Amino acid sequence: MADAWDNEPVVTNGPQLLLELAHEHQMDHLLTLLVHRLAESPRVALARIWLKRPGDRCGQCRMRPECPNQTECLHLVASAGQSRDLPDDRWNSIDGDFQRFPLGVRKVGWIAANGQPLEIPNLGIGNPWIAQPQWIQREGITGFGGQPLVHRGEIMGVLAVFARGTIGELCMQWLRTIANHAAAALATARAFAEIESLKRQLESENEYLREEVERRSAFGELIGQSAALQQVTQRIDLVAPTTANVLILGESGTGKELVARELHRRSLRAKQPLIQVNCAAIPRELYESEFFGHVRGAFTGALRDRMGRFELANGGTLFLDEIGEIPLELQAKLLRVLQEGKLERVGEERTRSVDVRIIAATNRDLRQEADAGRFRPDLYYRLSVFPIEVPPLRDRLDDLPLLAEHFLERTARQLGRPKPRLTRAVMQQMQQYHWPGNIRELQHILERSLIISAPDRFRVDLPSGSTSAAGSNLSAGVESAPLPAASGGPATPREILTDAQLRQIEAENLRAAMKVCRGKVSGRGGVAELLGVKPTTVFSRLKSLGIEPRVDF
Ligand SMILES: Nc1ncnc2c1ncn2[C@@H]1O[C@H](COP(=O)(O)OP(=O)(O)OP(=O)(O)O)[C@@H](O)[C@H]1O
């Protein structure tokens, strides 16, 4: 009996479907689109897609006895169609009898195993390809056509239609074209899904690493309960949730960086990056590129485009440590970014916008620097909206016991030694010292002391005489060796020196050099030139030895 649509082609909307395929990048959507569009043709009873995937339910699979290879099979992933006589009976489910096909078994398995199309024009009772003859008969299905989904030689699966009527050469060609496009689109969707999952993996790794760094960082918490420190934490709490710029003031080693990290941690930007720049460590000619980035070829050595620190900190916080070191010419550009949130990479005209909160720190008196013309007053006012002054350790000696316990415990753990007991005598010694290098110095002295102390007797290796300057003697806690001459050519120690003694000599030498050069580090007549090292090395040595670069000289 001929149906009314006998003359209609099986594939009615091929060109439209190809266009739609090109725009869809999500695997599920793509599969649904394919079968539903094909099933829109009145002559298509059922359109289905199976994809090759690892065997997943071999235990329950009714085709298991026929399955030659139980590591891989065809999974039904999309289905669309409807009954001829019962329009509400839709065949969109991907469960049921044919949800898995072994490779090489029956029509669909044969197509996937051979990578060849298969058309069966006269499905009827007795046809060996038919698994459910009653269904075929009841629904008036007479044709089957299937095409392998092949992309770059890889057989990904099978696209098949059951038709009411014969499929024919032309429609098989259309199905071939659709299958080719579908395979390419599926490969793209698979690549997108892989990228997405790698991205998610990277994001979670990144999140994990950030947490890990935070956990491991020495910058955990501000330790101390003195009234002076409590004032600092109160100010942190006040300003952290706002967007105000913060200027942290205080001597070297007082914990300004730690305060900056706490501010970021307690701010609404805590999940965004905290990018740190040590302004004293950037060579003059690289400031602009370091801050604002550059494009390839902007200067010799600019081999590729590079983001500056401002862009890296976008959405988060930029911590400008030792801000007093920024050269005057760059201060104007910095001010513009602070005011307008706009910048240009070196060598590029395009203006970029950034949203960055600035936390700056300095151990200089910036107002004095501004009065002396070394710091732009407008930048100073912009930065100092909310200053936080971190007191020196000598003004909060109440915190010494807690800090000392903390550092000793940490160092002992790192050295794999038991934590020594801090005697009252040791505490008294420490409280009498004036701590010019503040908490950093405390940390170093305790580390050194632990290393050189006998396991059962902790002695603190303090420079003797808290008021002494360049001529101080050696430790109060260990036997001291006589000092070599501090001037007149290379030192020739008569005895082996401890690390503490060496650091003491280094500190004295550096202080003497700073004095001779009147505190000037870089350029002609500066300490770096005198000592024959780079200015950045001088700054980092000053920092590690706890020497204030200017005030003392
Ligand atoms: N309250 C504190 N509790 C625990 N550790 C602290 C505290 N304050 C400072 N430290 C530690 O002391 C060291 C020096 O602190 P930090 O680098 O923050 O000082 P700074 O003022 O930024 O120094 P500089 O001006 O030289 O850069 C760090 O190892 C820091 O972890």
UniProtKB/TrEMBL annotation:
<feature type="domain" description="Sigma-54 factor interaction">
    <location>
        <begin position="222"/>
        <end position="451"/>
    </location>
</feature>
<dbReference type="InterPro" id="IPR003018">
    <property type="entry name" value="GAF"/>
</dbReference>
<dbReference type="GO" id="GO:0006355">
    <property type="term" value="P:regulation of DNA-templated transcription"/>
</dbReference>
<protein>
    <recommendedName>
        <fullName>Sigma-54 factor interaction domain-containing protein</fullName>
    </recommendedName>
</protein>
<dbReference type="Pfam" id="PF00158">
    <property type="entry name" value="Sigma54_activat"/>
</dbReference>
<keyword id="KW-0804">Transcription</keyword>
<dbReference type="InterPro" id="IPR003593">
    <property type="entry name" value="AAA+_ATPase"/>
</dbReference>
<dbReference type="InterPro" id="IPR027417">
    <property type="entry name" value="P-loop_NTPase"/>
</dbReference>
<dbReference type="Pfam" id="PF25601">
    <property type="entry name" value="AAA_lid_14"/>
</dbReference>
<keyword id="KW-0067">ATP-binding</keyword>
<keyword id="KW-0805">Transcription regulation</keyword>
<dbReference type="InterPro" id="IPR025662">
    <property type="entry name" value="Sigma_54_int_dom_ATP-bd_1"/>
</dbReference>
<dbReference type="GO" id="GO:0003677">
    <property type="term" value="F:DNA binding"/>
</dbReference>
<dbReference type="InterPro" id="IPR058031">
    <property type="entry name" value="AAA_lid_NorR"/>
</dbReference>
<dbReference type="InterPro" id="IPR029016">
    <property type="entry name" value="GAF-like_dom_sf"/>
</dbReference>
<keyword id="KW-0238">DNA-binding</keyword>
<dbReference type="InterPro" id="IPR025943">
    <property type="entry name" value="Sigma_54_int_dom_ATP-bd_2"/>
</dbReference>
<dbReference type="GO" id="GO:0005524">
    <property type="term" value="F:ATP binding"/>
</dbReference>
<dbReference type="InterPro" id="IPR025944">
    <property type="entry name" value="Sigma_54_int_dom_CS"/>
</dbReference>
<dbReference type="InterPro" id="IPR002078">
    <property type="entry name" value="Sigma_54_int"/>
</dbReference>
<dbReference type="Pfam" id="PF01590">
    <property type="entry name" value="GAF"/>
</dbReference>
<keyword id="KW-0547">Nucleotide-binding</keyword>
